[in-house]
From TrEMBL:
Keywords: Cytoplasm, Heme biosynthesis, Iron, Lyase, Metal-binding, Porphyrin biosynthesis. Its EC number is 4.99.1.9. Pathway: Porphyrin-containing compound metabolism; protoheme biosynthesis. It comes from the Bacteria. It is an enzyme of class 4 (lyase). InterPro entries: Ferrochelatase, Ferrochelatase_C, Ferrochelatase_N. Involved in coproporphyrin-dependent heme b biosynthesis. Catalyzes the insertion of ferrous iron into coproporphyrin III to form Fe-coproporphyrin III. Its main location: cytoplasm. Residues 383-406 have a biased composition (Low complexity). PANTHER family: FERROCHELATASE, FERROCHELATASE, MITOCHONDRIAL. The gene is cpfC. HAMAP family: Ferrochelatase. Fe(2+) binds at H199, E294. This is Coproporphyrin III ferrochelatase.
């Protein structure tokens, strides 16, 4: 890639981008080692992990997420090349190869010293944001590179057009499909319900997350509030959705059944909607950026089967994936950080979800850090929560700490 005018490493302050994600197995032999990584420190025996592994076993032991990340990486590289930047991209995962410490070492060996970290989660929250900062802290410790290479996490982007535009298109298409299904069934006057869905998390974790002004405005925890704001924006900006009912539900609940998690579960909700007279649903997976295992299993298998048993028309909308607006918008957000570091007028991503969001990642439950400059130093207090709390907006297995609840 050639270097564009004013796009020098010195001027921009950063010289590489790390795409950070959850990771997933790529074959049957990888499944149990991967789940051991996810549940490290919990002492869960392999026999119980094998119960969790059924979703991966049914897919040949392969999680879709790694291939999706390769596709996203290639799309981002192409967009960066189109803009004539000299900004190499690397990829590192929390729980499977390529691992974040190895990516950090490779970036250092290649001569990079100031790195932006782009996480494959749109929302602020512990597992979708703060834990990635802890991953970098652990990578520093493993590689001995603390003080030698600086990693700065890019802000969350759920409120940007990059994330919203693909879902606007998907919602319009989903409504058209469900209405066609209803007409074919002789129910042309039936109105579909829009069901927004995201990964559930323990209610105690949700309640502990701020910031307070978001909790006060929405009357709920900040994690739920972010998703409610996205759902409201989509309903208000997609003409085809005017006048329709919508709801926010949850999926992929895991861990001990005695621990309260955010509800309702999507399958329970679909049953309630059918009992109340709903004849079709458009499922919008707004908690996710790609069609990984939880989308494929929890929505395309379990939720679809629930709807079919009840005779409901069903459509699951795609996630942003490598949609052109998503890819271009992510690069705009990278540019915002680059120009800000270079003292130039930032080319910001376009906020379309109303609200005073700012960069709320570091105030939604993160551990204290030794320095705010990198946002990625070793935590000085508290250990990470149990793995059952991890990656709710990323790509955790749908039963990280034990068999799925459904």
């Amino acid at each position: 890639m050639s270097r564009a005018e004013n796009q020098t490493t010195e001027g921009l302050g950063y010289d590489a981008v790390l795409l950070a994600s959850f990771g997933g197995p790529e074959g049957q032999d990888d499944v149990i080692p991967f789940l051991r990584n996810v549940t490290a420190g919990r002492g869960i025996p392999d026999e119980r992990l094998e119960e969790v592994a059924t979703h991966y076993r049914a897919n040949g032991g392969v999680s879709p997420i790694n291939e999706q990340n390769r596709d996203l990486l290639a799309a981002l590289e192409a967009e960066i090349a189109r803009r004539d930047w000299s900004l190499p991209l690397y990829w590192g995962n929390r729980n499977w190869d390529p691992y974040i410490p190895e990516a950090l070492q490779q970036m250092y060996d290649d001569g990079h010293r100031r790195v932006l970290m782009l996480v494959t989660s749109a929302y602020a929250g512990y597992s979708s944001c703060c834990q990635y900062r802890e991953d970098i802290a652990q990578a520093y410790e493993k590689t001995g590179l603390e003080g030698k290479i600086d990693v700065v996490k890019i802000r969350q982007f759920f409120y940007d057009r990059a994330f919203i535009a693909p879902f606007q298109e998907a919602l319009a298409a989903g409504l058209e499909d469900v209405r066609a299904q209803l007409a074919a069934k002789g129910e042309p006057d039936a109105q579909p319900k829009v069901v927004f869905v995201t990964h559930s998390i323990p209610t105690a974790v949700a309640d502990a997350q701020g910031p307070d002004h978001v909790k006060a405005e929405y009357g709920t925890d900040a994690y739920t509030a972010q998703h409610l704001a996205v759902a409201r924006t989509l309903m208000e900006t997609v003409p085809e959705a005017a006048g329709l009912e919508h709801s926010l539900v949850f999926q992929s609940r895991s861990g001990a059944p005695t621990t309260p998690w955010l509800e309702p579960d999507i399958n329970d909700a679909i049953e309630e909607y059918a009992a109340a007279g709903t004849r079709g649903v458009v499922v919008m997976p707004i908690g996710f950026v790609s069609d990984h295992m939880e989308v494929k299993w929890d929505l395309d298998t379990e939720a679809r089967d629930t709807a079919a048993e009840l005779g409901l028309a069903f459509h699951r909308a795609p996630t942003p994936g490598t949609h052109a607006a998503f890819v271009g918008g992510l690069v705009d957000i990278v540019a915002e950080q680059l120009h800000g570091a270079g003292g130039q007028a930032p080319a910001r991503g376009e906020q379309v979800v109303p609200g005073d969001w700012g960069d709320i990642c570091c105030v939604t439950g993160c551990r204290p850090m030794l320095t705010a400059r990198s946002g990625a130093r070793r935590p000085v207090a508290e250990s990470a929560p149990a793995p059952s709390d991890s990656a709710p907006s990323d790509s955790a297995p749908s039963a990280q700490a034990g068999p799925a609840s459904r």
